[in-house]
Amino acid sequence: MNLIARLKTLNTPLTLMGGVLLLAVLTGLLGIPLLVRIVTVMFVSIILVLGLQLYMGNSGILSFAHIGFMGIGAYTSVLLSMTPAAKELANSNLYPFIIPLHLPFLPSLLIGALVAALIAAMVGFPLMRLSDAAAVITTFALLVIINVVMVHWDRVTNGPRTLFGVDNYTNLWTAVIFCVITIFAVYLFKESRVGLRLRASRDDAYAAASIGINMVMMRWLAFVASAFIAGIGGALWAHFITSFTPYSFYLTETFVILAMLVIGGPYSVSGAVIGTLVVTAAREILRAIENYVNILQIFPEGFFGFTEVVLAIVLIVILIYRPTGLIGSQEIRLPFRRSKVGSSEASQSIKQIS
Amino acid sequence: MINLEFIINTLSLGSLYAMLALGLVIIYGILRLVNFAYGELIMMGGYTMFLLAGFTPLPWLVVAVLAVLAAMLTSLFTEMVAFRPVREKSLTAMLITSFAVSTLLQNGALLIISPRARAVDLPQLFQTSVMIAGTNVPWRNILTIVTSVVMLTLLTLLLRRTVLGIALRAAADNFTMTRMLGVPANTVISTAFAISGIMAGIVSIFWIARSATVTPALGAPPLLVAFVATVIGGMRSLTGAVVGGFVYAIIISLLGIFLPPNLLEFREAFMFVFVIIILLFRPQGLISSKTSVERVG
Question: Which of A276, A293, B58, B94 lies at a CB distance of 3.0 to 4.6 Å from B62, suitable for a disulfide?
């Protein structure tokens, strides 16, 4: 393949990566602190949503455990990156062997992601046999288990109390770099052998099995990769927020991430990115309204939950009228010398098989 | 430790959990939908009681009936507005819808009423106890057991003796075939959601009687209980749901006695590990109805 052809197949990830980078540069140039904050969190959200898309989009199975793995990545990386003094201050009950551990940010982040992936690999292998409702309940059970352990294992997580004193390593640029890498990696996964086989088994389990695709194995690989990405997202988020509790990694966050993916379109990488953009923008506007109403003190009990109510209604409407999301199952690409072969996913898949 | 008090408490907890599990399973049996919004129906019942008992002079029994009615109407309404349009699309779409409905109702309560807990006025009966054979038994527990026996009898009669009930059971067995034989899908599904709502409403009375308060997040703990109980009993069988409810109550009570205190706080985690193990090795639950296809490998 020559360079042009190669670039053509990479049109989608390059477009998305370029778009994300452009956004980061513009935000950096504007330099408004609030905007920088919002965009940084958004890049982390894109990573988390992409991680979920990698598993859900390719396997067609809803997973609730994703945010749990985010939590594992967050706590592991934070316990490695914090200074011993800060650890003793934040949690006097911590296991003594954890206190002297002190690593730079990048190794901490990677170990956090690896631990999340390792746990996913261990618990995921039997779970991948399950489909439909059973799969959903087991991943939901996994989320509950991870949460219960995080809330009660106070010698590691400081229990339900806030873990504070984390160094702020994540900024706009670290977030965007990881975001760009994740976009590329998730796209490569989708077009890889594993991704293709997984999607084949999603569309027709029996036909896929008949040509020798090991569906359980493919799902497992995607599940582990997805947990790894969730771990990275969690580590980045933790080093940006710098103080958090186990409840940051539970149903509320799950709902937001799921809404981003489903509104954008769960079957494409572009959908995950666009969905995160749209939902982040909408949430910030709604939250601003919520805060404004609270400042005016119209309601004696406060004005809470408005953002979630609107988001939930939008999500239901999208599921009813556009179940494949805003983007659908197609990937966005720049109109860059239109080829006659067409850009549909199907024709591309056929080319790859032959 | 296992004395009369323990037995009555466990029986009452078991009957509550049995009703809870029934309401979830009756929808799952027909639609394969795990209704995440089920817990919020209980919350709706709770807020109805809070509003009516606190601000109207209605007698308490009327308040209780209206609370059940509110939970039922909410259930029917969510079915018509949210679940019916996505029913034909995909299971995942339906599951996400139920998750969204749950968030919507929960935050709706947060928005309209208050994030803070609200006290619910309950009749004196719920706080008093009676002496039976030398043990103090709360009336609440006796009422729970009696109500569940009545409800289970009524439900059994409905399912065995009426055309609608037979249609429901047929739909739970093979929905496509039932529809081909001329049973309207919407009627069957609406009935299932109505029964589910009634169960949630009744559970809400006894659930709230334990703490006498209602919060927007009230629905989560009963939902988790219902999940575990239905998985134990087998997701597709109504008898299984009842058995699952009692088994759950027995396990959780025994864990409460025998688990060392430092592990007791992880009790919920143990229950969910148990759920995963059951789904892996006996996905049809303790009581199986038909071979399940959830496991692929």
Answer: B58
